[in-house]
Amino acid sequence: MSISIPNEDSEKNTELNGLQKIATPQEQVFDHGMLCWLQVVGSFAVWANTWGLANAYGEFQVYWEQRLLQPASQIAWIGSIQSFLILFMGFLTGSLFDAGYCRSLLIVGNLLVVLGMMLTSICSEYWQIILCQGIVTGLGFGCLFTPGVSVVSQYFVTKRQFANGIAAGGSGFGGVVYPIVLHRLAPQIGFDWAVRVVAFITLFFGIVSIATLRSRHASGKMRSVIAPGFFKNTPLVLYSFGLFSIVVALYIPIVYISNYALTYHITDPNLAFYLVPILQAANIIGRLVPNFFADWTGPINMTIPAMIGAAIVVYAWIAIRNQAGLLVFAVIYGIFFGTIQALGGPCIASLAPDRRNLGRSMGMSFAIGSFGVLIGTPVGGAILGENDNFVAVQAFTGSICVVATFFYLASRISKAGLRWEKV
User: Which residues belong to any copy of the Major facilitator superfamily (MFS) profile domain (predicted)?
Assistant: First the structure.
């Protein structure tokens, strides 16, 4: 294991994503060795237990619509509450993480996820599902996500984006595994037991994350949930509004693509189901390859082209009425989706000046974005309506992607101007 230890009597400038920082013994960064790569393994498990399971909600959406006979927009609130709490809880968990409560957050979060899914397996009423799958599981997600994302950035500098990309691959992995488990097991052992199997899988990932993740920077005391200087950091504030905008749109195709395929008789029901796992598998590519190059370009410089690409393919989705075209859309959108989501944490890390407050900076930015997640898919469902107005949903989604891109561009220009710079 290679550890860079500076002289305690002198200050040593180290590069942190283009920012010059003062390295102290409390701010050592591991770029190699088992300890730092164990953080990637643990973060992978957290991503699988948060966004991986949240991204599988489309399978639950189909089942709950059939079982509860509720409108799509109402059922969508269950998944939206989950995703909202993943980000909104960062407002509190970021401060707890910076204070040294990483392990406690991981234990509580994983217990809530397992408990929430076990309780979901015995739910039969809408309010019960909102409480168990939406709120209990969502609170667990929220406890896990900020520690899971923040730790990796404490251990990497030169390979930070690539390491974060590997870790974020847990989202795509979970997004593939969980829906297939439900889809395959539900006809054989019943939906309730299939959900319990999912809960046991989350228990496994939870044990992995608790055993491996270790925070490096802890103040030892609880501080304000407001990151110092956050609202004076114009690039970070603009980025946060961009995050709010993009997450309004980002999950709409995932939730409604299967319904789209069935409504227009583009695929048979079996292939319609597999569109989401295909999208999530492509998601993994989008997390690995662009993140590798983002270590040279900077995360924001890599994210902006992905957002432009996402807007273009969503607009193109309007014209797709055949199976081959829809499969191509799922793959390409999945790649852009993975890039945008995986580079979210690194983008904040590149704009936040102090790693000791990184948890709070991420938490505040995620909290702003959380309201976009909350309203995104329900608004999509409301626009869709009973008449299945998919063209309006697609146009809305693409337009929001364009708005978000302008916020990201404004953040990048505010940080580095129009000149080329790693951001």
Answer: 35-416
Within a domain: 20: no
Whether 311 maps to a domain, the answer reads: yes
Q: Which domain holds residue 321?
A: 27-416
Residue 2 located in a structural domain? no
pLDDT at 4: 36
CA distance 210 to 349: 23
**Residue 88: pLDDT above 70?**
yes
Residue range 240-269: mean pLDDT, rounded: 92
In terms of Cβ atoms closer than 10 Å to its own Cβ (0-12, 13-18, 19+), residue 92 is: middle
Q: What is the DSSP letter of 387?
A: T
Q: Would you say residue 21 has pLDDT above 70?
A: no
CATH number at residue 205: 1.20.1250.20
Residue 347, amino acid:
C
Q: How many domains does the chain have?
A: 1
User: What pTM was estimated for this model as a whole?
Assistant: 0.83
Backbone φ, ψ for residue 190 (5° rounding): 95, 150
Average pLDDT value over all residues in the chain: 86
Residue 142 exposed, middle or buried by CB count within 10 Å (0-12, 13-18, 19+): buried
